[in-house]
Amino acid sequence: MRLPSMSQPFLLAPIAECPPGPPGAQVRLAVLGARGVGKSAMIVRFLTKRFIGDYEPNTGNLYSRRVHLDGDHVAVQIQDTPGCIQAQEDCVQVLDSLSRCVKWAEGFLLVYSITDYSSYQSVQPLYQHIRKVHPDARTPIIIVGNKADLLHARQVQAKDGLQLADELGSLFLEISTSEDSQGVCDVFQYLCKEVSKLQHAGSTDRRRSSIIPRPKSPNMQDLKRRFKQALSSKVK
User: Fold this and answer.
1) Which end of the chain is more exposed for a tag (fewer CB within 10 A), N or C?
2) Which domains does the chain possess?
């Protein structure tokens, strides 16, 4: 399927350049999905524990907070993204617009609404684009079916979300941002932990690659053997 496009130009909030810090000092997340699936509400719910139902569309805000994670305070930046609302023939423009955000982030939430089947259809193209930018399969991506409290309006079954996640090799769960604050926090905290683990693994790999092996020093017996060989060759 084609990736839906924006109704207005896709403008992300400026992302400040931060000096490199120690592993785990900063976690960068992006929340992607169609318009109206509850991306902004999820982020605010996680950061403030409050639920706010109405947001200005296509704002693309960047949220920066320090959160408590496993006994440590971690700086978390979460990039909200404008929603996709209609299909177009050429999806390259949309992907180019998303590329800066996708390249910047280290972990991703792909959100759809269980009451909107078209939002579910937008997940796979977004996932594929992330994998093009981050070919490392370890980059954490979680698929989230939001608005799980609206069962009377359900258009996407839980088994459909699970099947898609299995096909893509991703994690999946359904949540209700309006009714389940803990569920929202669990999603973000798990993603933060996965990014932190990946940061530590990358730091360890860099340290290992930077170590230059020292040449082995010849032992005394080897030196004596070489010396005798040199003397015998001169005598001959």
Assistant:
1) C
2) 26-210 (3.40.50.300)
